[in-house]
Design a protein that fits this description.
The chain has 1 helix and 2 strands. The chain has one helix spanning about 15-25; strands at about 5-10, 35-40. Strands 1-2 form a two-stranded parallel ribbon. The N and C termini lie far apart (about 35 Å).
């Protein structure tokens, strides 16, 4: 299976990260391509 990696940088995005994750989840890729989401958080002061 072909896999698309989606890398999302996040810094103090506790209140808004769910919005982009919802949009990424809702995208349907063609030809059976799968997706993985990698969130990179480096030094946030939030959760």
């Amino acid at each position: 299976m072909i896999l698309l990696s989606i890398i999302i940088p996040a810094y103090n995005e506790e209140r808004t990260i769910h919005l982009i994750l919802d949009k990424v989840r809702d995208v349907v890729l063609v030809n059976g391509i799968g997706k993985e989401v990698i969130i990179v958080n480096d030094g946030s002061t939030e959760r």
